[in-house]
TrEMBL record:
Signal peptide (from-to): 1-19
Protein name: Porin
PANTHER family membership: MAJOR OUTER MEMBRANE PROTEIN P.IA, PROTEIN YDDL-RELATED
Main localization, broad class: membrane
Pfam families in alphabetical order: Porin_4
Superkingdom of the source species: Bacteria
SUPFAM superfamilies assigned to the protein according to its UniProt record, in alphabetical order: Porins (SSF56935)
Gene3D superfamilies: Porin (2.40.160.10)
Stored CDD domains: gram_neg_porins (cd00342)
Hydrolase found in the keyword field: no
InterPro entries xref list: Gram-neg_bact_OMP (IPR050298), Gram_neg_porin_domain (IPR033900), Porin_dom_sf (IPR023614)
Record key words, sorted: Cell outer membrane, Ion transport, Membrane, Porin, Signal, Transmembrane, Transmembrane beta strand, Transport
The organism of origin for this protein: Ramlibacter alkalitolerans
Subunit and interaction comment: Homotrimer.
Amino acid sequence: MKKSLIALAVMAAAGAASAQSSVTLFGIVDATIAHGRASGTGAANKTALANSGYNSSRIGFRGTEDLGGGMAASFWLEGSLGNDDGTAGQRIPVGNQNVLNGASPTNPNGVGDGAGLVFNRRSTVSLSGGWGEVRLGRDYTPSFWNLTVFDPFGTNGVGTTLTLVGPAGGLGTAGNAMAPVGTRGVIVRASNDIGYFLPANLGGFYGQFNYWLGENTFNGANSARDGTGWGGRLGYGAGPFNVAISYARTAYDATPVNPVQPITTTNTFTGAVAPTAAQIAAQRAGDFRTWNIGGQWDFGVAKVMGHYTREQRDSSAGNAGTGIPASGEIDGRGWLLGTLVPVGAGEIRASYSTYKIDAGAGADPRARQLALGYVHNLSKRTALYATAARVQNRNGAAVSLNGATLGTATSSTGYDLGIRHSF
């Protein structure tokens, strides 16, 4: 009898503990047949089995512990998957973007760096309560949210907005100068981040403030501010209406200090190496600033959404040879207008987006894109999708879709056909 009572007490204690804490395994496996076409002399088409055409493929663990009194502690570890070739970890895009933050929207079939599974999408620990949430680790920047939330295609696949890929997505030397090494990583995600999020009971108002550290030493000969930045987002959503504005700024000094990634154009991950003097001169950094505003209205029969973004980078003498003036600013701006139309078990997606860089000298590269797609939900977790997009380049811009090589013509067409399963 005593043994039975002891067993019941142990089971009760275990039940109480499980009620207070939980750990969840989650993920998305998304595969797509991606085709890119271009025309003109020298053009080359490409067909690939890629991933993340609708949602980013990922695997992760998250958990929450109830601390009592309305407070909770939680963690979130999420890494990228390359389910098209079985790789995991950081995905280096095939192109000119030099980023380690997942497959590029314009090159979804990036190559893996061979590092294995790393939680490069998000790795945070947080404490929350009625006063809000403090979150520490690697996370999305506040300025990124408006570009994905108010885009019917999110930030995946051939239809994603040009306002996301604009700074370094094929707008020529001006685009590369706009986004120095490391900056695009901070556009989407920031490492070494300290974030505060407003509580959810503010009558529709929401927001966050983030500060990320460059974590450089300072000995009087270099600057500890390189790679350090901050950003914030404030929004209001109630009923069918949602609008938000954000701002972010990252400091980049003229000479990178202990760069994690070399300044190269080969797009190969070689670890922490010092750039050469020529490489530093080719892409000398300047402070990078971005702000955007986005919103949507749900009319029932359709959601209409849009956003406007502007990005600026301080120019310097290190821009010699890029067509950028030695002083002043490089200015990029773009906008998107899109819609989501529910149709039975699925929805139609459509958008028009454009991005332009004002380099202050010579022609200003610009690109315009029209995208149309359909998602059919087989269940709450499984969906089939198809997307078609066409981009038109002007003034030296060279945005191409799904890995196509532009020829003498200035346009490119891309198609995605895939399946997404979440768990």
